[in-house]
Amino acid sequence: MKVILQQEVKKLGKKGEILEVSEGYARNYLLPQKLAIAATANNVNTATQQKAAEERKKERILDEAKLLAAQMAKITVAIPVRMGEGGRLFGSVTAKDIADALATQHKLEIDKRKIELKDALKSLGTFTVPIKLHQEVGTQIQVTVKPE
In what order do the strands lie in the sheet with 125-132? Predict the structure, then answer.
């Protein structure tokens, strides 16, 4: 019996795949659990349309990420920090600080988890910070840590 998977099923397949399974497995497990639907002509057309729509959405998101990466490559973010005795910083500059500075200075909302800062910045100067905007798209920005 041919079925279209509605969810990922371990050791069987991923969502949207059209598979041939035994009739008992389909009738007794997949269909009652709503893990799959019967592969009628109407359901197959609907599934192919949904798959095409998902592909278009993924391409659009990738294009937007590439455009944003090109814009962000030119950005420099200045972060003022308080200084203690001997030129030492009070605290450090973290990914959250960089994300907040991007939001206030350049009106860019970037999630702090996308900023790939290995260690917090603990000294004055200009640093190159990588940002992962998408699985396939990354960029770098310049972060300047300066005294307040």
Answer: 76-81, 138-147, 125-132
